[in-house]
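Hello,

Our lab assistant flagged a job as stuck in the queue for most of the afternoon. It eventually completed. Since we weren't sure the result was trustworthy after the delay, we are filing this so someone can double-check. Below is the sequence as submitted and the structure that was eventually returned. Let us know if re-running is recommended.
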Amino acid sequence: MVFDTIETVEISSSAEESPAVSWGAVAAGAVAAAALTLVLLAFGAGMGFSSVSPWGNSGVSASTFQISTGIYLIVVAMLASTIGGFIAGRLRTKWVGVHTHEVFFRDTAHGFLAWGLATVVSAAFLAAAASNIAGGVSSGLAPTAGGPMDYYVDVLLRSNPTASPNTTDLRATRTEIARILTRGLRGGDVPAPDRTYVAQVVAARTGLSQADADKRVSDVINQAKTALDNARKAAAKLSLWLTASLLIGAFAASLAATEGGYVRDNWNPGLTGR
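-- returned structure --
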């Protein structure tokens, strides 16, 4: 009876001393998941670029490409998260005197934490890369887009294109029209005075009649609206696919961690080197 009490106290004390979270195992699983995600995304990027062809009737269509990209994101999340979660569960310390249900919960938490850490690290690196890319693009577009006050300066200094057409400085004309279209499309539509001015500039530079210039301006604005709307829809679909892949990845990592923890606790100790 005394020995049983001593054994119970020893088991309880050892259970209290062992930490509930093995952060080393969590970090190892997260690093493995993030690295495998990078490898699979690089492979998918190469396969995706090779499936898109500039020639007609070759390669895949845009809708098929979007769907295949979304499915591939889910596959990447499942594979990377499964391996990362299994590593997190397999490498964690063994809990002595802990109920089976509690062990299952802790293993699930280890997988979820490994997935969360890998997601945060990946998002941080992707955000840094996106910031660098956006910074380069912004610097390249700075002469075209201009600052927020440049549009109003252009309005103040506008001349009558039909009376004194500017046929020499094409870059200044392109930059001014780009600012007008950018500001107008950002607000939903190009105002009528701006449309009239752009049409006058187009007529003066191209030799078109005013009616033909008006039609050309309207057609170009409609094409730009369609392109922006298609880009918005594509971004929304990609966000939904990404959300689905993240949720599936969290589930896969948590489930794989329970399997890894089960293997950790029930491995045959009689085998040499195990």
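-- support follow-up --
The delay was a queue issue, not a problem with the job. The result is valid. Residues 1-15, 133-145 have pLDDT under 50 and may be disordered. The chain has two domains: 2-142+238-264, 145-222.
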